[in-house]
Specification:
about 130 residues, mainly beta, single chain, extended, 5-stranded antiparallel β-sheet, 4-stranded antiparallel β-sheet
Length: about 130
């Protein structure tokens, strides 16, 4: 199984094709749009690994942006005992949820590709035969 190590939002992620993950929020990008990550630190599979110094030039990872959203609330509560001093605060970190589609090597060949996702729609059946 092929993988790649990408750098985005000041963090590094080991990704595989078809994987869904949360990354730091990507600004000015709408949902259901394509994203291309060019800062690839390493890529490979079980037998061979290509490591960059610091990045691999020409390698890239394509992904789809599923949604931009916020995480659950993290409560910050500070109390100084015997001083009648309390402070309660909350924080919701923004994130982007992405799905990895393709991983390209430095010479442009596709290392791995995710399967197509098809949305299942519900069909209402009419009972024409019952009325006959």
């Amino acid at each position: 199984m092929s993988f790649a190590v990408i750098k985005t939002g000041g963090k590094q992620y080991k990704v595989k094709s078809g994987e869904i993950l949360k990354i730091e929020k990507l600004t000015d990008i709408k949902a259901n749009s394509k994203i291309e990550f060019n800062e690839i630190l390493a890529y490979g599979d079980d037998s061979k690994i290509e490591v960059g110094a610091p990045i691999v030039n020409g390698a890239k990872v394509e992904a789809d942006l599923i949604k931009n959203s916020k995480n659950r609330t993290v409560l910050i509560f500070k109390k100084r005992r015997r001083h009648n001093s309390r402070r309660k605060n909350g924080h919701r970190q923004e994130y982007s949820m992405i799905r990895i589609n393709k991983i390209f090597s430095k010479d442009g060949k596709i290392l791995s590709e995710a399967e197509k996702v098809s949305k299942v729609t519900k069909k209402t059946e009419t009972k024409k035969e019952a009325s006959k």
